[in-house]
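Fill in residues.
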């Protein structure tokens, strides 16, 4: 009997020790199931961790999911939000990490309705999903339709180049921007209703990162409505970190006719320093924001424009926000983009690991975009996509200057 009692105590101790094995090293362990996905696919998890008074972005790439199963380990200090990215240009989902064992069940037919268990916010996640399911569903459908249309256009050869974006792409992209705004509003409404939830600071962070125009409201609400406990939590501290970052680093510029374009000084791909001051009084500048995963169909139009006017009257500056420099360089070479190209993503130890120098100066830019700046450094036009008629408009301006000269 005594031996049985001792054996029982040892079993209890062993089970408890196993359940706490990740806590001792601030570690999480994810055991995941992926349904309706290819037999082999890869995932990426990205989150922010506070280490030695520095907020560092941790990115775990190429997590293999074989036959619907995947696992991942990492270190976190406390309850932390993370973006989980999928192959195939789907929108990422936001999951929550803690120093514990976590189980994820994701159906790629509706990834936004994932099931997470093992954390202290499982219930909160479920309530949030019920609130956001309709808008998340439309967001997911929108990106899938958009990619489908783009892929069909990519394989069509028209004349000597690729087809320009059509109105289907523009309407889908325009709707996506509307959906982002609706999603931010829905997250805001949820945060007001459930201000006592642990995940509330993270939802407010998502709102301000989607719409910086709400920065003042987010700050006032967080300071007045969040409890001290939530403010002092890991997610709370990170929210206020982001608020301070936007207050200190973003120049809120209205992309409107007549507004002064914020200057910058960066090295381009060939090593030369680029600044608007190089072109004042001499050339128009067309800023082209892009990434390798969302390269616009108007690249051939830019080539034509640059070949005609690039030497004397116009400078095109490409600004990439790719995750990897290699992808950026490969795209520049493959697409034969001969105008100056800048890689804008930076590693910033004092604020956040991943940040942008130029993109942050134009906070309303999202995905591929174009801003035309005159010789005096003033914004005179902005587009989401360039069509033939837009190129003709730019050419008319340049021809007028040529004739005047």
């Amino acid at each position: 009997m005594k031996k049985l009692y001792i054996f029982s105590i040892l079993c209890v101790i062993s089970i408890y020790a196993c359940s706490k094995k990740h806590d001792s090293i601030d570690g999480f362990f994810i055991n995941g199931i992926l349904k309706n996905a290819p037999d082999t696919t890869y995932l990426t998890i990205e989150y922010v961790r506070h280490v030695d008074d520095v907020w560092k972005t941790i990115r775990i790439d190429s997590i293999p999911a074989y036959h619907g199963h995947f696992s991942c380990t990492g270190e976190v200090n406390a309850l932390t939000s993370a973006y989980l990215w999928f192959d195939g240009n789907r929108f990422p989902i936001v999951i929550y990490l803690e120093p514990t064992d976590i189980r994820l069940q994701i159906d790629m037919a509706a990834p936004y309705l994932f099931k997470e268990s093992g954390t202290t916010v499982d219930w909160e996640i479920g309530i949030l999903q019920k609130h956001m399911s309709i808008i998340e569903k439309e967001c997911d459908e929108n990106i899938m339709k958009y990619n489908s249309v783009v892929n069909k256009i990519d394989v069509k050869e028209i004349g000597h180049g690729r087809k320009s974006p059509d109105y289907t792409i523009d309407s889908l992209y325009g709707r996506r921007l509307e959906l982002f705004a609706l999603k931010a509003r829905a997250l805001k409404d949820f945060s007001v209703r459930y201000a006592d939830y642990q995940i509330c600071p993270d939802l407010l962070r998502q709102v301000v990162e989607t719409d910086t125009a709400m920065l003042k409201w987010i700050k006032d609400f967080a300071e007045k409505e969040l409890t001290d406990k939530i403010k002092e939590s890991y997610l709370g501290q990170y929210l206020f970190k982001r608020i301070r970052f936007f207050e200190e680093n973003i120049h809120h510029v209205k992309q409107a006719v007549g507004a002064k374009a914020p200057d910058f000084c960066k090295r381009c791909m060939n090593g030369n320093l680029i600044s608007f001051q190089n072109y004042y009084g001499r050339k128009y500048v067309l800023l082209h924001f892009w990434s390798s995963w969302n390269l616009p169909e108007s690249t051939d139009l830019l080539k034509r424009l640059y070949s005609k006017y690039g030497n004397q009257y116009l400078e095109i500056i490409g600004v990439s926000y790719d995750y990897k420099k290699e992808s950026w360089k490969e795209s520049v070479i493959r697409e034969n983009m001969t105008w100056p190209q800048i890689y804008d993503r930076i590693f910033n130890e004092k604020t956040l690991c991943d940040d942008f120098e130029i993109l942050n100066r134009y906070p309303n830019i999202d995905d591929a975009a174009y801003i035309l700046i005159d010789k005096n450094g003033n914004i005179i036009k902005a587009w989401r996509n360039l069509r033939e008629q837009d190129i003709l408009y730019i050419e008319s301006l340049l021809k007028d200057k040529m004739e005047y000269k």
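The first strand starts at residue 27 and ends at 35.
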